[in-house]
Amino acid sequence: MSTLITERIPEAAEQDQLEWVWRNQRGIAGWFSVTTHQQIGKRYIVTAFIFLLLGGLEALLMRLQLAAPDNTVLGPARYNQIFTLHGTTMMFLFAVPVMEGIGVYLVPLMLGTRNVAFPRLNAFGYWMYLAGGLLLYGAALANTIPDAGWFAYPPLSGPQFSPGKGVDVWAQMITFTEISAMCVATELIVTILRMRAPGMSLNRMPMYCWSMLVQSFMVIFAMPAVMVASTVFLLNDRTIGTHFVNPAEGGDPLLYQHVFWFFGHPEVYIIFLPALGMVSAILETHSRRGVFGYPAMVLSLVGNGFISFGLWVHHMFATGLPQIGEAYFTAASMMIAVTSGIQIFCWLATVWSGRLRTTAAVHFVFGFIFIFVMGGMTGVMLASIPLNLQAHDTFFVVAHFHYVLIGGALFPLFGAFHHWFPKLTGRMLDEKLGKIAFWILFVGFNLTFFPMHIVGLYGMTRRIYTYPAEMGWGPMNLLATVGAFMIAAGGAIFIANVMRSLRRGPVADSDPWEGGTLEWATSSPPANYNFAHLPVVADRYPLWSPKEDRGIVVGLRNDRREVLVTTTLDADPQHRFVLPGASIWPFLTALGASLGLVGSVFSFSWYYVATVLGMIGLIGWFWPREPLEVEP
Q1: Could you tell me the domains of the chain?
Q2: pLDDT band for position 626 (50/70/90)?
Q3: Rounded Cα gap, residues 452 and 398, in angstroms
Q4: Is residue 615 over pLDDT 80?
Q5: How far is residue 251's CA from residue 238's CA, in Å, rounded to a whole number?
Q6: What is the pTM of this model?
Q7: FRET label pair with 85: which of 220, 549, 556, 576, CA 20 to 30 Å apart?
Q8: How many whole angstroms separate alpha carbon 250 and alpha carbon 231?
Q9: Of 31, 29, 35, whose CA–CA distance to 528 is shortest?
């Protein structure tokens, strides 16, 4: 890249100029106008954890109801509402958004760039996500609560069996969250493929970035399916009288299940793949060696992504499908254990050949490996059609997917927070409190969900609000409820650790763990522009290479938000690009679209309002103000 300024500005002056150009506006309007990836990523994370707390409280209410036979804490209608809120919150408002929020924060730092490719789209995605969550819980405060489960199977979710607007609210909330997810996926794909630091070829990219790239492509292919199921099929059947899933008029409820689970099973891996990247980043840093089997790890991530789209029918083995088709999905369900197993063996080899530090983050990683292997074993069991038919819709399945999802997502997530908390906040979490929280969570988790395998095999079906004493399920359910409150206690200790560390935690330097990837090359927390000089990469772990081998990019202007665009394969510099600055238009666009979409729950004509308001916002959003591309 040629230098545009012939007389070099002193470094302090350069940083002052960068601070001014990349600053966030002050005041209320400025808060709504933020487009820097660090701030948007933090908003995703904080909002998702608020929804986690709400989902956890709902889980505790269900466990209190099931703790003893013939309990009356919740009635049948209220139990169904709490059950639906819990599943919807955890799947749509916590698990995917928190993984995407961490990706939004970390990926540009790991790639050595200053922001995501489409910063205004990033802000718009967050506002749509927030609007979806407020829609669901605003309706809940108005006692308009969906009660058909987080999957909303017709015909039980149809107007005949679920009157009122609760299911309509659920269906439209899906639209909000999936629009948000696809916004994040789009910007991360472009950022990863076209904005890596010079020299960071694809075979030098951090494993976490690989996991987010595969996950983002999965979002692009999977999320439209659930929007079709919830909006085109279910919401239109309920509001304007179509008959996609109405068997009385030639519709087919199984069509809904096929389309929903075409999204639903990749959804598990959309949550799980970022966790794999987190585990790789934690282990390679705390083992102080590069991850073992890098090519095999990358290929297993890609294999997970592909195979996960061929598993959805194992959710439907009890629906009477052709046996030849069921046999295919049994094979695919067992095959995906191979790609996940490759990851685990490579991690063990990394630890074996490194010098492991047993930090709190590493504790959560090993807890994840144990729990996820347990969940994977029961997954292989459920892939067998004869056993699946016996265990279908029992608590054995509930235990399985909580072992996979909580073990496969929440434990790596807590480990990631201990690992990257210094980078997000500039403070260190207390390691002793972190390890105490881990052991309470680990014991509480197994105490909660392992007994569910047993009561499931004894015949306790899911989605029931009570049971008679003579069934003999009481002791195991009481044990599970005690474990649930232990999980709550472990979560409370984690929150207390975070709040204490934000105020009085030790100040973190830029690289407290001696990591090898580029996020540790910036200050903690990083400036809005991430890097005063974009790095040049010559190694997979640039911070572990000698300082004399590290280079910087020259020729980028500091008087505008200019970034470097590189080629897809080898990350060779291609051209400079000027990113748009802070803007309130993404918020106004999301607000207009949200008003129309919420109104459409009550009348189809509100879709026209959403279109008009959204178009007004987009005109302001894309109104030309400055050149965006500059040739080198």
Answers
A1: 11-247+509-630 (1.20.210.10)
A2: low
A3: 7
A4: yes
A5: 13
A6: 0.94
A7: 220
A8: 19
A9: 35
